[in-house]
What does this fold into?
Amino acid sequence: MKRIMLMVLRLIFRVPYYLLGIWWSGRRKNYDLEKAYAFIKKVTKAANRAGRVTIKSYGDENIPRENGFIFFPNHQGLFDVLVFLESCPVPFSFVIKKEASQVILLKQVIRALRSVVIDREDIRQSMEVINTVAEEVKKGRNFLIFAEGTRSKMGNQLLPFKGGTFKSAVKAKCPIVPCALIDSFKPFDENSIQRVTVRLIYLPPIPYEEYSSMKTPEIAEMVKQRIETAIRQFQQTAQEQ
It folds into this structure.
């Protein structure tokens, strides 16, 4: 909470402009995802600088050059999406749980990026989201889905990945891009405004041919293991330096 207040205070004179710009990006008649994404990226970078948060990404070359893929990162908190918005060079939408969809500003970002809200208590609606995402990915849109379903409250340790979150990828037959978030819980979950660095590792994409014969729980476990390995290797390297 302290860091969010710091962001707002340091950007107090720009906040109305940023809010109006994000709102307009989602409301304009001639909608353009790339323009909306570029504006939100600009706002995100400014907010992160104001909040004394540095984003470092690795493996950007692993992001597929052809659109129509899904990022599957571990989930540490509300700041996770801001990490991707600053570091990712290509537009993406995301799937967010209903409980978080009414947060101020996030609500406007959801609309501007044509993201999708999922009600995990409504099985029928959840299936509609899976099908909608799959169809949109087939058309060339990129998505971000948190496979844990909820944020881990154990730092850089992961919760089990849910097999059902990979159904959209299976239906779309698209590349899966595992992503490892490190220390993304610190900006908003720690009651501090000390400078902090959050890291994001884009891992090599998994083509459909590699997981087509697997069941979704198996895909989930494979992706989880790759992310855990990446985090462990990064931490070991950091300790050795």
Summary: The first helix runs from residue 2 to 10. Residues 39 and 92 are 13 Å apart (CA to CA).
